[in-house]
Design a protein that fits this description.
The protein is of the alpha+beta class and 361 residues long. The protein has 2 domains: 56-193, 3-Layer(aba) Sandwich (Trna Endonuclease, Chain: A, domain 1), CATH 3.40.1350.10; 197-342, no CATH class. The chain contains 10 helices and 16 strands. It has helices at residues 13-26, 29-39, 42-68, 131-144, 188-191, 243-251, 282-291, 304-309, 323-335, 347-356; strands at 71-76, 92-96, 113-122, 126-130, 148-154, 163-167, 175-179, 196-199, 204-210, 219-220, 224-232, 237-241, 258-265, 268-274, 279-281, 339-342. Strands 9, 10, 11, 12, 13 and 14 form a 6-stranded antiparallel β-sheet that branches. The protein has a 5-stranded mixed β-sheet with strand order 1-2-3-5-6. Strands 15-8-16 form a 3-stranded antiparallel β-sheet. Strand 11 (224-232) and strand 12 (237-241) form a beta hairpin. The radius of gyration is 23 Å and the shape is globular. Mean pLDDT is 89; it is low at 1-9.
């Protein structure tokens, strides 16, 4: 039977955005641009592109859960219900099983915490959800008997994994609000088993570059190839060469190193830096390290949607550095007297929340 092609049979904006996100995860940039131009009018392009970006943040959160190694299951939920109901399906069903590392307690001492997670993003410093959008999500959580969490990313801090995670556990409230300053009081530090590493005061770093043929490591357009990375602490300098120089230089990038001195010795340049911030979360250390690699055009190669889509069920085979790798490096620096381990807030408050959400030690 022939039918008239009208807008009535056309996919919604969100469904087209989902389709384009899947294409972007497997296609080249040129292929994606060509397909999106064929599917979208000029008037639609900006709106749909924003929805594609928002959907991609869901993959960013899911991959972060994987990299932090505190979630045993992260299951995306199909949000196109077959049976109509007065509810909205959240983005993920998740089981967290974090340890309490600041007290030396492993994740095996936790029974786990099962929940639904709704992912949101905002360019503002506060996010609020209420009315029917909140009520219908609560209806779904109530129907299936699981707690409802909101994970909000604050996009003003694009270089950081600035996620605030809250439990919507008081349904007498007509709305739920999340603010930038809720980072330390939210559930993030509990569910991600979070702690911070502080650079000991007085520590300086020195990058040594050599002009000439470009090597395989880090490269500075003015100074040349990096051949050494030095950590100048109060005891003795630590010197790393070759690939280790590039790796340790990248490890300390989240500390926002600032140049304090540059010295030239023939073809060699010695660039001295100090930390712009004294402490960095294990979450940001993991996230930032994975975001550093770029292609020949200078574009970052870390793409959570592509990594998840191309994993073929084996994320462990993907080129990402997870918590185990980064924490191992940080612990090495701790033993060498460069970093100091810090908890988030009061240790006993952290422990109480950990027990509330599955901890049994």
């Amino acid at each position: 039977m022939e039918t008239e092609n009208t807008d009535r049979g056309r996919a919604s904006d969100i469904e087209r955005a989902k389709a384009l996100k899947r294409i972007r995860a497997v296609a080249s940039n040129e292929q994606y641009d060509r397909i999106s131009r064929e599917l979208l009018s000029e008037d639609e392009a900006t709106t749909i592109a924003a929805k594609v970006d928002a959907l991609s943040e869901e993959d960013d959160f899911a991959l972060l859960c994987r990299m932090m190694r505190t979630a045993t299951h992260v299951v995306p939920l199909e949000q196109r219900p077959i049976v109509p109901s007065d509810s909205i399906v959240p983005d993920f069903m998740v089981r967290f099983q974090p340890g309490l590392s600041i007290k030396g307690i492993s994740s095996t001492k936790s029974e786990g915490f099962k929940c639904f997670v709704e992912v949101k993003t905002t360019k503002k410093l506060k996010y609020r959800i209420g009315g029917s959008l909140l009520k219908r999500r609560r209806n779904f959580a109530k129907t299936f008997g699981l707690p409802l969490l909101f994970a909000v990313r604050f996009l003003r801090f694009r270089m950081n994994a600035y996620w605030v995670i809250v439990h919507d556990d008081d349904w007498t409230r007509t709305s739920v609000s999340m603010r930038v300053e809720d980072l330390f009081s939210s559930l993030r530090h509990v569910l991600f088993d979070e702690y911070w590493y502080m650079v000991l005061p007085g520590t300086r770093f020195q990058c040594v570059y050599q002009r000439g043929e470009r090597g395989s490591g880090a490269y500075h357009p003015e100074y040349g190839s990096q051949v050494e990375f030095r950590i100048l602490s109060k005891d003795r300098p630590l010197v790393f060469r070759g690939d280790e120089a590039s790796i340790w230089s990248a490890f300390f990038v989240p500390y926002q190193l600032e140049e304090v001195d540059v010295r030239f010795e023939g073809d060699t340049t010695l660039r001295t830096l100090r930390p712009g911030i004294s402490a960095c979360s294990i979450v940001d250390l993991v996230y930032s390290f994975n975001r550093l690699p770029t292609d020949r055009s200078g574009n970052r190669t870390f793409d959570p949607s592509r990594i998840i889509t191309c994993a073929d069920g084996d994320l462990a085979a993907q080129p990402i550095a997870d918590r185990k790798t980064i924490d191992g490096a940080a612990r090495r620096m701790q033993k060498l007297g460069v970093l100091l381990l810090l908890g988030v807030g009061e240790p006993e408050e952290h422990a109480l929340l950990w027990r509330k959400y599955g901890g049994r030690a």
